Amino acid sequence: MPQHPRYSIYFVPSAQNALYRFGADLLGYDAYSGKPLPFADGIETEIEGWRKLTVDPRKYGFHATLKAPINLRSGKTEDELARAIQEFAHAPRAIPRIVPVVRAIGSFIAVVPRDPCPDLQQLAAECVTAFDDFRAPLTPEDRERRNISALTDGQVMHLDRWGYPYVFEDFRFHMTLTGSLPAEQRTVVLNILQKRFASLNLQSVSIDRLALLRQSDATSNFTILSDWPLVAA
């Protein structure tokens, strides 16, 4: 079992943002307040077993991973990590902008960019490297929990060097809406979520902020400690 507390650096839209409300209401959890939310109106009627289908993503809140969950390295503190993120956010850079769509990724469903976005790939890569000094080394137990046989050689190298396999060329921006779905249910759920998402009429989304989240123990959800807007170049 992972050690705690754990910290992560995510893109989370602002609390009143339409995209955030969409995702948080579907998951039934608000990472800003750390409190449960009523599920989106009618979703439990439309999709049987919706609460169970969202157990896994609910623990993390509606987000996109930029630096996967870590334990702090010995000698590093939460305040130091927060200051480092603030300094990073204040450095002028190109602000990634995507056209969001809802698609299936493997066995789950997520909000993803419609098109490749080099600025987003660059931001994600910088987050991996900029904060790695705060990451405690991967333990043999942590490594064992990964299904190494399912990873490519490059992903195994990333896991051993950066503590997470899906970075750099293997990074795929996604904001998860469901857990793993059986194949016979996936198309039905995807169609329902795509229809709901279309009603938002979101033409684009700026990936314009970073949030620091903490999971205090194995039974708790990740909650937002603070967030910072990125400064445009």
UniProtKB/TrEMBL annotation:
This is Phosphonate metabolism protein. NCBIfam families: Phn_opern_protn. InterPro entries: Cyclic_Pdiesterase, DUF1045. It comes from the Bacteria.
